[in-house]
Amino acid sequence: MSKLRIGIIGAGGIAVGRHIPAFAQLKDEVTITALSDVNLERARNVAEEFNIPYAYENYRDMLSRVDAVVICTPNKFHSEITVCALEAGVHVLCEKPMAMTAAECQVMINAAKKANKVLSVGFHYRYMKESQAAKKIMAANEIGNPLVVRVQALRRRKVPGWGVFTNKELQGGGSLIDYGCHLLDLSLWLIGNPRPVEVTGTAYNTLSTQPGQVNQWGSFDHETFNVDDHVTGYIRFENGASLLLEASWAANIIEDKESVSISGDQGGLEVFPLKLNYAKHGMLFNSEAAWIPSEEDPGVSQARNFTDACLKGAELVVKPEEALFVSQIMEALYKSSEEKKSIRL
User: Which domain covers residue 149, as residue numbers?
Assistant: First the structure.
C-alpha cells in the first residue's frame, strides 16, 4: 500500500477545522479520497472546497474506496459506524468520546480485534507540546508515585451554540462528555492509566436552563437544554491514587481555566503551563520549562500517528482500551449524580 486512502464521515466543524487540514499535510502518505454526510449538499460543498474526489450521503457507500475512516459524527453514531467500518476491513480514527457508553466502547474494541484493524480515538490533547513534555517527566519518575490529581476544564459562559452539543439524545451529555473528557483522558494517560474502582459525581444544568442567557459562544434554547453544563467528580484508583475533576461550559468564574495538576510523593507537576515543584536541600523549589520543542500542530501529530499505525504498524498514542477507561468514568459520574451515591467499578 503506497498511500493510505482516507474517508471522512461527517462534514461538520471538527472535520473541516481539524481532520481534513491535518491529513492534507501528510500528502506523501495519505490521500483523502471520500467524504460522507447525511446532508449530501454539505458533503458535496466540503468535498469541492478540499478537492476530495467522492462525496456520499451514506457512509457505507464509500467504504470500498478507502483504507481508513475518520468518524466526525454525533456521539450516538460512533459505535455503530466504527463497527461497520471495521467489519468492512477499514481502519478507524473515531472522534472523542469513544462512544455513548462503556458497553459500546467494548463492542468497538472487540470488532477491531476481530478484524485485526487499527482503532484509535481523537483525544488530541495528548499531542500538545506541554502534554508530550509532561509525559517524559512522568516517565522519568521526576515526581515519584502520583497521589492526587486535580483536573479543571472550565469555561466562562461558553456553551456551544452550534451543532448538536446540547442534544442529550445525540451526544449523551454536555460539558463533561464534550470538554472535560479531554483533560480527564490526559491526566489518566500521564499517571499510567490505573484502574478506576470508585466514582462519585454531581452534574448540574441549573445555569443554562435559566432565561436571558449571557453566552459567549452563540445562542441556544434554554427551554430544551437537557445536558450538563457543570460537573464535579472524585475518582479513586486501584493503586490508591485519587483524582478531583471539575468540568464546565458555563461557570461563573473570572476566566477560563484549563489545568492538570499531579501531586506525587517526590514532587508535583503542572501541565498548563508546564511547571515542576519539589522540596530539596531543606528548601522548596519551583521550576518551569523555558522552551518546549514543538514540531507540528497536535491535529497533525494525531493524524501522523494514526497513519503510521495503519501503514507501518506503529504504536498508537491513544489506544482504545485507554479511551474505554475515560468512558467508564464519565458514565459512572453521570450515574452517581442521578442516583446520588458513589458507583463502584
Answer: 126-294+327-344
